[in-house]
């Protein structure tokens, strides 16, 4: 097959695939996750990394339905702030252990945060190292060594419209 004809065949298949996705009612080809468990871990090189449902990467992508949540667990040895860099800001954060509404975005070490997103769209987040308050108990806190510049953790969340009754 000639290169021009091969390129035309590939483009035709891609367009037909997108049309089929639209016909089946998926939102941009995305399927909502049934579980989104994000965990920050300590790393010897770059200080920290994270996993999404067990898959490690510095950049993660979560797809959920509006009104649903994802969980952010901090298994690093320092607190982290979850910072929204773009999106609607229509977010509620609560403790994943007792459900208490959080006043702020700090995820202390060895705790978890539940993040609910209510408006369809795309949200982007990053993390910053949190500040330990003077009166915060430091039992079990210790600095583990790490080498090199800190890794920049990035998270993109696609929030789909709420599911229809038959989905």
Features:
167 residues, mainly beta, 6-stranded mixed beta sheet, 5-stranded mixed beta sheet, 1 helix, 11 strands, 13% helix, 40% strand
Distance between the termini: 42 Å
Average pLDDT level: 74
Binned, the helix content reads 10-25%
What is the SS-derived class?
mainly beta
Describe this structure in words.
The chain is built from one helix and eleven strands. A six-stranded mixed sheet has the order 3-2-1-5-9-7, with no helix packed on it. The chain has a five-stranded mixed sheet with strand order 4-11-10-6-8, with no helix packed on it. The protein is mainly β. The N and C termini lie far apart (42 Å).
Layout: helices, strands, pairs:
Elements: H1 3-23, E1 37-43, E2 47-52, E3 55-57, E4 59-65, E5 69-75, E6 80-86, E7 91-95, E8 106-107, E9 112-117, E10 121-129, E11 154-160
Parallel strand pairs: 1-5, 4-11
Antiparallel strand pairs: 1-2, 2-3, 5-9, 6-8, 6-10, 7-9, 10-11
In short:
The chain has 167 residues and is mostly beta strands. The protein is built from one helix and eleven strands.
């Amino acid at each position: 097959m000639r290169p021009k004809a091969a390129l035309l065949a590939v483009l035709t298949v891609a367009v037909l695939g997108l049309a089929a996705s639209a016909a089946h009612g998926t939102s941009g080809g995305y399927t909502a996750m049934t579980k989104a468990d994000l965990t920050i871990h300590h790393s010897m090189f770059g200080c920290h990394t994270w996993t999404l449902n067990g898959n490690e990467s510095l950049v993660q992508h979560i797809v959920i339905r509006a009104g649903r949540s994802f969980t952010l667990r901090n298994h690093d040895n320092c607190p982290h702030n979850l910072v929204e860099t773009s999106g609607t800001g229509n977010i509620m954060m609560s403790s994943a252990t007792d459900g208490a509404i959080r006043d702020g975005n700090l995820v202390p070490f060895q705790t978890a945060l539940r993040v609910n997103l209510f408006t369809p769209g795309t949200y982007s987040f990053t993390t910053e190292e949190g500040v330990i308050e003077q009166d915060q108990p430091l039992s079990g806190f210790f600095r583990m060594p790490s080498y090199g510049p800190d890794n920049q953790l990035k998270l993109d969340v696609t929030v789909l419209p709420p599911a229809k009754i038959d989905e």
